[in-house]
From TrEMBL:
Gene designation: phyhipl.L
Source species: Xenopus laevis
Protein family membership: Belongs to the PHYHIP family.
Domain Fibronectin type-III: 52-161
Protein name: Phytanoyl-CoA hydroxylase-interacting protein-like
Domain of life: Eukaryota
């Protein structure tokens, strides 16, 4: 990997890295504006003899890396010393919207055997569409480059967090979960019109729907997993659900054993905050063998029902006993339909606190408590 200085010219590096497939760093990147099909960099000359990359292929895509390869005409191939890779978020190819504003999109790499790995969480985000184009270049004795024309522009999308990434996120959540408190019901807050609609159009059965885009951008459940959102946190002094709600003044309370029992699998889904001191943990409850269970098995870390830091179900002499973590706000997604007749619907006496709503909430990418060192 070439390590150019950040100046108007791409200069000879002080300490080149010998292996392109190692992680990129801030010093590995030099900004080069691209207008049309040819480079306009000061100090970079155009040379038609260098082969133009074509038939670009993107493979092995993760949330913060990908492999790239291409074909080239053999003409002057032995003169190529470097590749220029122009990487841009698809929504605006001419702007630089990365987390660090001083990080440009042009990657300058030594000409190594293809495919070549591009990796770096400061300029690659999960589940994000990008465009990429490539030039070949030949470094001259004076430090300047001659370059080919730009290749065609290719589009691709990065992946979600893997189970490995989610396990790292889960471990950070475990560190702040706090002691466990008893609870007895799962509850869902909505407006009266919601429950009237369920009774009239769905025979009083709440149906799963796709999860919104709140939380970590890389969470594989966002906009993909279908379920019904419940809460289970209780007030410390009463042991009962809070009387305030961000989602509406009506609440259905379902006995915990109806949704959480030995026939249910439990998964960790996400950990995030919204620029506040509150941290949220998303868990998934999926009846064994259900479509939601199959979805989660492939993508999410599974938790022991009786031994985890967030939500437990244990068998005691008088039946099932349930506990939830005190110091995080739990959002529990149940992946099957739920009949209102399993519980009770009633109006709460507290306030509707809209400021606490997590609907499509964006995660704070700078929080050290709930972020991991991969694409945000």
């Amino acid at each position: 990997m070439e390590v150019p200085r950040l100046s108007q010219h791409i200069s000879t590096p002080n300490s080149p890295c010998e292996d392109m497939i190692k992680n990129l760093s801030l010093e590995n990147i030099q900004l080069c504006e691209r207008d049309g099909n040819k480079s306009q960099d000061s100090g970079i000359a155009e040379m038609e003899e260098l082969p133009v990359p074509h038939n670009i292929k993107i493979s092995n895509i993760t949330c913060d890396s990908f492999k790239i390869s291409w074909d080239m005409d053999p003409k002057s191939k032995d003169r190529i010393t470097h590749y220029f890779i122009d990487l841009n978020k698809k929504e605006n190819k001419n702007s630089n919207k990365f987390k660090h504003k001083d990080v440009p999109t042009k990657l300058v790499a030594k000409a190594v055997p293809l495919p070549m790995t591009v990796r770096g969480h400061w300029f690659l985000s999960p589940r994000t569409e990008y465009t990429v184009a490539v030039q070949t270049a030949s470094k001259q004795v004076d430090g300047d480059y001659v370059v080919s024309e730009w290749s065609e522009i290719i589009e691709f999308c990065t992946a979600d967090y893997s189970k490995v990434h989610l396990t790292q996120l889960m471990e950070k959540a475990e560190a702040i979960a706090g002691r466990m408190l008893k609870f007895s019901v799962f509850y869902r807050n909505q407006h009266k019109e919601y429950f009237d609609y369920i009774r009239e159009h769905h025979e009083s059965v709440m149906q799963p729907s796709p999860k919104d885009n709140s939380g970590s951008h890389g969470s594989p459940i966002s906009a993909k997993l279908e379920g019904i959102l419940f809460s289970c946190n209780t007030e410390f002094n009463t042991g009962k659900p809070p009387q305030d709600s961000p989602y509406g003044r009506y609440r259905v309370e379902i006995p915990a054993e109806k949704l959480f029992n030995p026939n249910t699998n439990l998964y960790f889904g996400d950990f995030y905050c919204m620029y506040t001191a509150y941290h949220y943990v998303i868990l998934v409850l999926a009846p064994m063998g259900s479509p939601g269970d199959e979805f989660c098995k492939q993508r999410l870390p599974q938790l022991s029902l009786s031994d985890n830091k967030f939500l437990t179900c244990t068998q005691e002499h008088d039946g099932l006993v349930f506990h939830q973590a005190q110091d995080v706000i739990l959002e529990v997604i149940y992946t099957d339909p739920v009949d209102l007749s399993w519980g009770n619907v009633a109006e709460i006496i507290g306030h509707q606190l809209m400021s606490l709503s997590t609907a499509d909430a964006k995660k704070d990418p700078s929080c050290k408590t709930c972020n991991i060192s991969v694409g945000r």
